[in-house]
Amino acid sequence: MAVRQRGSVRSLMRRLSSVPRSQGLLTYLEDRVSSTGPINLAAYMDACLTHPQYGYYTTKADIGAFGDYTTGPEATPMFGTLLSKWCQWVYEGLGEPGKVNLVELGPGTGVNAKSILGALPDDMKRNLSLHLVEISPIMRRTQQDSLGVSSLSSVTDGGVTGEQNAEFKLPEFLRQPFQGGDVTVSLDESLEISKFWREGVPEKGGMERGVQEGTGLTITWHTHVTTLPEGPLILIANEFFDALPTHQFKYHTETQTWSQSAVDYCPDGLALTQIPTPPPSIRVSGLEPNSLANGEGFEICPEAQLVSIELAKKISRFGGGALIIDYGDFQTQVGGSKGRENGTIRSLSRKASAIQGSGFSRPLCVTHSPGDVDMTSDVHFGAISEIFSKTPQVELLPFQPQAYLFTELMGDRIYHFRDIIKAGYHEGMSKEEEDIYHMAPLVDIKGVGGEFKCICALSEGLNKGSQESTANPGLPLGWNMKEMVEAMERMMRTGQGMGTGTMPSS
Q: Does residue 506 have a pLDDT over 60?
């Protein structure tokens, strides 16, 4: 591909600043493609979401009932209220931990942290400091307003230089489950990861701190997980991992080679294409010879794996727990009999979908309105789970649907919740009843409650079981429902006195 002659960086920036954001990002992408060739999907996704001037998250992110999409915490504050019970369970399991870091990755508008804090007991809050990992300046301001922080100041503590970050050794390969076997990908310069893993975070690396009015709670904003402080942590990551840059690879039976999905620029605009992947970048093991179909492949998110390694290291060293909630599955397959032909990387926007005749946030082609819409991919929980399960002093709880977690967190109020949900929405409902009613899709195992999954990692010895559980007090809070449902299903299959009864609907 011929390389276009380029002007100075300053003239390029003037050209970008004079056009709308979407056109500015298109100009940036066109210039980049002309210079280096097609951009792999992960690099394209990263530019669309986090470009300093034209990225969706850094300049526009529109979350909520009238925005591009709605998350669980935005749908109802009961989401965070229930999660506070899990946070309290972890805190109590730590014994007498002193100061604890309550952490949220990708905190959205801040309403989830607000709901969690509002439901925690005062004696626990006095021992907490809140840490929010957020790259977007505009989302930080929204979170600041939600949490009642009047002013922020830049802080330099927590900066991690390249030398200090050297203790975090980048793995040579990334590995994840694939079709009953494993796929291994070389972690070289072609894979998209945050620059902070290799360069460290400078002292003035975007950290800001403020104090919540009325409570005196210290809240610190971080650009990256590597600057989270030492000490026990209680971490929530709801719809965080799905927004990290994701690569997609496809296999070609005729040549027995792999290619990577990418975005090219053509006269009609952006278009999807395939670029060759040099051997031996990808190795597959544990599969029958010639078992892959043409065009079949996988998606992999290097950033998700590196973040998981960092979190696992902190839990192992300082104690605590991490709860990860997102849409996805244990492994993500592209093509073949079980995978989506074009994979799971897609653009998403309720407003753009409405223009096309739908009021829902339905998937759009990845090249649709770059920088003006969200981009996402299904989370590969198998890869994340493997990292936590292989870290010393860390216990991984089973992969399960979100519906099980939240149904159990309802505790002895489950029938109260059920009755409100079954009665449907009606005039005269109290605020609490409305909040409970809007939990309905989030605990529907055949809907959102089943599409979203969760895993939990705990420091070894913390899991003393849930005293609230009537099913099995030896299991942690939030993981008994799965055990109960699976036990009932086993009994139903073997006819052990279950008759024709059904579980109470949640």
A: no
| Mean pLDDT of the chain, nearest integer | 84
Sign of the torsion formed by the C-alpha atoms of 407, 413, 415 and 419? negative
Residue among 429, 339, 448, 322 nearest 385 (CA) = 322
pLDDT at 471: 40
Instruction: Give whichever of 201-210, 223-232, 485-494 has the largest mean pLDDT.
Output: 223-232
Nearest Cα neighbor of 468 from 126, 80, 92 is 92
418-453: pLDDT as tens digits: 999 999 999 999 999 999 999 999 999 999 999 999
pLDDT at 491: 62
- Locate tokens 């989302």: which residue? 139
> Dihedral, CA atoms, 3, 22, 52, 4, nearest 10 degrees?
10
Please enumerate in sequence order all residues whose Cβ is within 8 A of that of 308, keeping only pairs 6 or more positions apart, or say none: 383, 384, 387, 388
DSSP 41-75: HHHHHHHHHH-TTT-HHHHT--BSTTSSB--HHHH
Among residues 116, 80, 86, which one has the least CA distance to residue 469?
Answer: 86
Q: What is the DSSP string of 17-29?
A: HTS-HHHHHHHHH
Q: Does the pLDDT at position 494 exceed 60?
A: yes
Q: What share of the chain is helix, strand, coil (3-state, %, to 5)?
A: 35, 25, 40
Q: Which residues of 416-444 are buried (b: 16+ CB within 10 A; e: fewer)?
A: ebbebbeeeeeeeeeeebebbbbbbbbbb
Q: How far apart are the first and last CA of the chain?
A: 58
Residue 101: Cβ within 10 Å count: 21
Long-range contacts of 268-271 (CB under 8 A, 24+ apart): 269/26, 269/367, 270/26, 270/29, 270/367, 270/370, 271/367
For strand 218-222 and strand 208-211, is the pairing parallel, antiparallel, or unpaired? antiparallel
The structure's pTM equals 0.88
Per-residue pLDDT band for 364 (boundaries 50, 70, 90) equals: confident
Instruction: Report the Cα 331 to chain-centroid distance in Å.
Output: 15
Q: Where are the beta strands (DSSP E) in 195-354?
A: 208-211, 218-222, 233-238, 247-252, 257-266, 269-276, 282-285, 297-300, 320-329, 333-334, 346-348
Taking CA atoms, 494 is separated from 457, 471, 482, 491, 502, in Å, by 33, 20, 18, 5, 15
The sign of the torsion formed by the CA atoms of 417, 350, 302, 220 equals negative
| pLDDT tens digits, one per residue of 183-212 | 999 998 889 999 888 877 766 568 899 999
How far apart CA 300 and CA 331 sit, in angstroms, is: 10
Q: Half-sphere exposure of residue 470, counting CA atoms within 13 Å on the CB side?
A: 4
- Cα 213–Cα 215–Cα 221 angle in degrees, nearest 5: 65
Euclidean distance between CA atoms 71 and 90, whole angstroms = 24
How many Cα atoms occupy the beta-carbon half-sphere of 171 within 13 Å? 15
Cα radius of gyration (the chain): 23
